[in-house]
Amino acid sequence: MATELILVLDAQSPRTVAPALRQLQGTVRWVKVGLEMFTACGPDCVREIADLGFDVFLDLKLHDIPNTVAKAVESVAPLPIKMLTLHTCGGREMMQWAVKAQQQHAPNLLLLGVTVLTSMDAPGLAETGVSAAPADQVVRLGRLAIDSGLRGLVCSPLELAPLRAALPADVALVTPGIRPRGADAGDQSRIMTPAEAARAGASHIVVGRPIFKAPDPVAAARAILTELAGN
């Protein structure tokens, strides 16, 4: 299966990026809405973006007690979203409750478990009390997530290979920390190029600034798609 491109909207309002989004209609299928935009605009931003014809990945990284996370999944279920994230470190019961809510209220919604944030390296992880290497912690949390009923994960591209080796082949692996060759790494610590991530087994790659900050966003997106197709 071909690796798909997800465009990150690093903005507080869809109106801020609306001109670029209109240009990218027909080139990019997926758009990721994160905490910044959702907390600023709420559910309306999701509807506005979906109305432009994009599939929406809502990246809220839910993490709370099981009942609260399940109710949050139920609350967003009526929205036109195709993916939703939660933190795997919330534990087995939390993830199981989330899966049950998803199955009851949004059967076509893909829940994605966030393992170790791509901004964290080994020293940063150790400061939180986790002595395992990032790759080992990702695999541990990934196995727990799939065993709890999730069908996809968010992970650094550097953990794609060990996850593909440890998990069923049909698990979706959504990969931020992607930078085209020569692009600024920004706040990402564990990165790969689009082609490298595709070869390692990413089902989706997540890219924002290298497209939006390019002089021609459409050309930048098409270059990434061409790289994915020819990996």
Layout of helices and strands, plus pairs?
Layout (H helix, E strand, L loop, with lengths): L3 E6 L4 H11 L5 E4 L1 H7 L1 H9 L3 E8 L3 H11 L6 E5 L4 H14 L4 E5 L7 H6 L6 H14 L4 E3 L5 H7 L5 E4 L18 H7 L3 E4 L1 H4 L4 H13 L2
Parallel strand pairs: 1-2, 1-8, 2-3, 3-4, 4-5, 5-6, 6-7, 7-8
Helix pairs in contact: 4-5
Q: What would you say this structure looks like, in words?
A:
With 231 residues, the chain is α/β, with parallel strands linked by helices. The chain has a single domain, classed as TIM Barrel (Alpha-Beta Barrel), CATH 3.20.20. It is built from eleven helices and eight strands. The mean pLDDT is 91.
Supply database-style keywords.
231 residues; single chain; alpha/beta; TIM Barrel; 45% helix
Question: Outline of this structure?
Answer:
Helices cover 45% and strands 17% of the residues. The chain has 231 residues and is of the alpha/beta class.
CATH architecture label name: Alpha-Beta Barrel
Considering the protein shown, what is the CATH homologous superfamily? Answer: Aldolase class I
- Overall strand count: 8
Assign the CATH topology: TIM Barrel
Structural class: alpha/beta
| Number of spatially distinct domains | 1
Give the biggest beta sheet: 8 strands, parallel, barrel
